[in-house]
Design a protein that fits this description.
- It is a single chain.
- By secondary structure, the chain is mainly beta.
- It has 4 domains: 6-25 and 147-265, Sandwich (Immunoglobulin-like), CATH 2.60.40.10; 31-144, no CATH class; 273-388, Immunoglobulins (Immunoglobulin-like); 402-643, no CATH class.
- The chain is 6% helix and 40% strand.
- It is built from 5 helices and 48 strands.
- Strands 32, 33, 34, 35, 37, 41, 43, 44, 46, 47 and 48 form an 11-stranded mixed beta sheet that branches. Strands 12, 14, 15, 18, 19 and 20 form a 6-stranded mixed beta sheet that branches.
Length: 644
Amino acid sequence: MLAAREEPLRNLIHASVTLLTVLFPLAAQTTVTGTQTLTSGQHLNLDDGTTGLAGGDLYWTSTPQLGSFGSAVIAFPPGSVTASNFASITQAQLIGYTYNSTQVFGAKAGTVFAVYTNQNNYSAVLITAVAADQTSVTLQFITFHSPTISKVVNNYSQIDSGFPNSGIAVGSLFIIKGGSLASATTVSALQSSLPPGLPSTLNGASVSVTVNGATVTPVFYYAISTQLALVLPSSTPLGAGTITATFNGQTSQAFNIQVVASALGFAGYYGYGSGLGIATNPFTGALYSYTNSIPPGTTVVLWGSGLGADSARDVTFVTPVGGFAINSLAALYVGNIPATIGYQGASGYPGVNQLNVTIPANAPTGCHVPVVGVTAAGVPTNFITLPIGAGVCQEPEWGRDGTALSSLATQATVNAGYIELNEPLDASGNVPSSPGTYMPVGFFSYTGAGFASATGVVSSGGCIANSTIYSSTISGLVPGPIFPSGINLEIIPTQPPNTFVLPPGTVGPGGSETFQVQGSNQVGGFTVTASLPSPVLNWTNQNAAATITKSKGLLVTWTGGQAGTYVSITGTPGGPGAAGSFTCIAPLSAGQFTVPPYVFAALSGQTADITVQEQTVPQTFTAAHIDYAFTQGADSQKVSAALQ
């Protein structure tokens, strides 16, 4: 039961093209040109064309002399290169010159010279004028940026290197992020995988991967200045290796990668490796969404890359007649419930895999029900979420539904925020005499897609782990002063997130506090009331979290709490080298919840702070300039855990 041929290609566009337009809007140029006038002591940064009193590549001494700065070195081209043909100089010419350690030289109008900059780029410079009194020099410059690699990740999961579930699988679709990687700045179309297949060079770019002394050449789906999308040959040896990108005759510095047999990444609709996953109807290809959720018991197709080698489809599309299974997952969980995998393997397109999965009949419902695959070794995939239910998904624990989510996700910008009360409890579950009740406040501006795929949001009954660096463009919004009722106190928010502390005794369990917030040019004024739950939650087995064996998971039990609330269990990095986080949600009435082993398997590091928090259902409120805001009350207890 394989899906329609067009769907994987559409998935690729969702997961890659959306990503690149969100994450890297500023790094499209491969050359920087301009003219700058330097006065005594001023420096010129040829890499970006800026001036200052320190740093840069060149500085003016007013003797009249120019000097190179830092590791920048200078070359003087042959006499055939003059002011008259300066504009036609090429990067290839600059690469061919011999650079030396000359630091200072006499400046004369009409002189042309070359600089290998502090950031390893090649620049041509023309002295157009020297002031008669030698107080300034005017320079015209052309800087050709060298290719740089900042990150290499699975196209779909986006999991960063160093995590247990990272690595680039043979036969997988992966992306290189960086700068000056190719001549194009936008993706006009994906390369066709029909015969003769995907190209090994595109828009002046090529890529080389070397592992254990063997070198292979990936092929391209697209190539732009800031990002390359490629398929790693199935024949690539496994192990630690390096990757380089070449553009305009220049090769980047080698970037370390780890090639693995399999490392599946599920496709997220908004391209961040998290949030709403891409799930389609196996017969019609229709996409499930927040307003078209998946009924339990339904078979869907999930998309991604990284199941493993598929040499027949490294370069060209080949229909998998009868299926070409690549069974690297031992299990798949939907809301912590095991699901049946009917097929996992080739989709037909190079690097793109599909999985036919039946949603368990007893799966939890909601807008963010987590989905994760796990290998026989216990290594998880990235965590995506699916809307499960009937029609518009419902999420009472977050105080919103699929209609609201879908509407916000389509906006270019979403301004959202919160103001909360949080009562910290001591180890015995009592309210300590100090420091007082915490008041977290935060308002932010997201892209619509970034808001919709924010990590850490999960439906009740499930867990989600984050093994990626959340890359959406987020900026803080600052409201005006906050005045709590009945307290002679003015609270001044700064760039978020902020956490303030109300004086002890101001509010206790079951109590409420009303906040009058003065408007600013970013957040309109509002008045809102937050209430703490009562009675408080009692985490009854805190000692179990002191030392956690990751392969066994963690059982959390509790008593007390206010009826109708929810319990969140979170893990955040707790020490040097720790990375990754997780969030689980359960109804208070459950009395217990087990954080599965595969959640801990997604974390690196040896320590984590485990927090168990009772939280009321969020109550939304309105404010000018804000699209979505809520208030909430909570009480919480925290344990510092050793992970083993």
